[in-house]
Amino acid sequence: MTIHCFEDARRGARRRLPWMVFDYIDGAAGDGQGEASNRQTLRDIRLMPRVLNNVMQRSVAVNLFDQQCELPFGVAPMGMCRLANPMADRALAEMAARHKVPVGVSTVSSSSLEDMAKWSEGQAWFQLYCSGNQGGIDPLLARCKAAGYETLVVTVDVPEVGRRPRELRRGFKMPFKMGPSQFFDFACHPRWSLGTLAKGAPKLANFGGVHGEFDRTASRAGADWTLLSEIREKWQGRLVVKGVLNVEDAKKLVSVGVDAIQVSSHGGRQLNSSLDAITALRDIRAALGPDFPLFYDSGIQSGEDVAKAYALGADFVFLGRVLSFALAADGRRGLHQMVDVLHRETDITLAQLGVTSMDALGQSNLA
Ligand SMILES: Cc1cc2nc3c(=O)[nH]c(=O)nc-3n(C[C@H](O)[C@H](O)[C@H](O)COP(=O)(O)O)c2cc1C
Questions:
Q1: Cα of 320 to ligand 1 centre, how many Å?
Q2: Which of 8, 176, 223, 315 sits a CA distance of 20 to 30 A from 232?
């Protein structure tokens, strides 16, 4: 299949994936209104085209911490990517290595953090879910250090896992629980079932055996500012805090000494009535001034969306579902097509706006 845009990838994923898996990836908190509202706000942002600026020589490359990324977007951490496609994790990691962009490795990733570090040639960032129980964190941090991770992303917007009715209705569980309805679902999607289940059902690859168990749905409500300060003390590498929407929280994070903040509503998967993440990005950038590193994810589906996030103050952007859908639709080929589409769309948007680089984007490009 040929992917020309986000909707092509999503449609392909919907066709291939069992309903349970599609609903896990596509789903959001509540009735999905929060996710839709953020999308609508992103859509409603209008850009201001400029003409006759000679934009022949342009580049979408950006500097991120101390390296140059060929693309202005990376991979958001996602649990259980291998549900989309058996080689999803590896394909994402290798794509990240090729374009020198970060790939988020979830605490609940379906390939081990060690494999992801190797496949991505050092581009992997480990995403940590932390509860109040510091003991559970130390072994993971030690493994990250041993595997050469330089950047830790602490996700703070999941004190409790959001209620996602589409997931709940399908009986989605990690690890898998196979009941009659799942059996029927998988039987109706034989191509996926033969490709994925035949290779062994995807697991929480960072756990099991000597590494203990992890409950994806466990409460993390005990996490607090003290815990974050402890992590800051223990982790010598770069520390990014993901899942921030509030200006006061952002200011406090700067004072705790984090290296960057990732403005995110978790793709609308946590709080249905949440403030739109793209609005929060604008507000937080205004509050923190132009220099503090701010990343953005949630609802990015096109190169124009990428440009909008940069114009509103993002220094880097992360993508979730769009990449997952592309992998589900057509594996590695689908991923490459989608990344190429997003690259071209971003590049063409720069040309339309009369600018030649991502760092030239700002308020003046908004209509
Ligand atoms: C299937 C799926 C699994 C996810 N798992 C995690 C996770 O384990 N840790 C995390 O911090 N965020 C997780 N997220 C949230 C993403 O990192 C990101 O915030 C979100 O997908 C961005 O929105 P988008 O999908 O609209 O691009 C997940 C998102 C999806 C779609």
A1: 5
A2: 315
